[in-house]
Amino acid sequence: MATDRAAGRPRDRRTHEAIVSATEEMIMLHGYAGTSINAIASRAGVGKDAIYRRWPGKPELVYEALFARVDTGPVPDTGTLAGDVAQLTQALVDEFATPAATAALPGLLADFAADPALRTRLRSAFLAPARARMVEIFDRAGARGEIAGTAQVDLILDTLAGAVFFHVGLMGEPRTAELAAQLADIVTTGIGTR
Amino acid sequence: MATDRAAGRPRDRRTHEAIVSATEEMIMLHGYAGTSINAIASRAGVGKDAIYRRWPGKPELVYEALFARVDTGPVPDTGTLAGDVAQLTQALVDEFATPAATAALPGLLADFAADPALRTRLRSAFLAPARARMVEIFDRAGARGEIAGTAQVDLILDTLAGAVFFHVGLMGEPRTAELAAQLADIVTTGIGTR
């Protein structure tokens, strides 16, 4: 969503990084409700407008700081659908299991629930990069003949993100080494016999 | 969780029902944070101790009032694994899509996140009835030769509940007639070719 704004002059990237780091630190120290744009700006050593030029508000900034890591780096390309989905799921697991994510999630969800315009942007902006990565994974799987019919990208993305949120974020289950692969198997292979 | 406490004398059942109804109404009117045990007791026409005899506190009461419907009624028995899982998922969809659930979820999640003892009881008490229903569904599927290997009941339950929460509760996607069957298919059949 705002990742492309980090490109450009080195000073812009440093400012972007300083703001994102300060956001994560403030969430860890004070939680979501206790973190303000003012406080983030202070900690990052920037003015408030440096933040508002880049993000519309707190939910967008916190989302990018804590939940957009799954959108960066090369798109998984392991050679199999299950392998690619497992890697994408691992990135989700790594994000949801951080203390900052656990601290931020209820407040972030409350802001989304209270603001219909924000919810609308969830699909079109927040989740667009993750969706694009999944589309690429599914295109390659389709070319290999690994995907049955038309994959419902949004529903599958919601299923994986929801599973990780519920299992790790909410239930507090441990991040075992096998978890991502197990979730990927449930979704790609299914639990039924063939 | 507290469903068996509703059994017994008719007056006990009426009290139980009055408290549960009042809870749902208060959540609809005032949201989760704005709903107190005092206010629920008032609206239900009971004393606070009538509530505390039955539930340890607000999260448990709200959870039962809004999210335990999936635990009641006969266990799905359609003859196929996919059919049974679709019915269980439909009950989840019906619950998460209510305005009261949407209103309560962020605050309920915040209480769970803030209280480790409450989180521990999530698995052992709150979700135990839903888990038992899924175990019964899997036992029958196993006897029919429909289940591959050992089904990871908790992970699959978390996947379905998480998918519904994320897709319907958070993203606000519509409750189409096909949604539950589509989610059940993802989990039982998988998206990969065979």
TrEMBL record, chains A, B:
Keywords associated with the record: DNA-binding, Transcription, Transcription regulation
PROSITE patterns assigned: HTH_TETR_2
Known DNA-binding region: 36-55
Domain HTH tetR-type: from-to ranges: 13-73
Keyword Ribosomal protein: no
Database matches in Pfam families: TetR_C_11, TetR_N
UniProt entry tagged with the keyword Transport: no
Protein's UniProt name: TetR/AcrR family transcriptional regulator
Source organism (scientific name): Nonomuraea indica
Taxonomy of the source species: Bacteria, Bacillati, Actinomycetota, Actinomycetes, Streptosporangiales
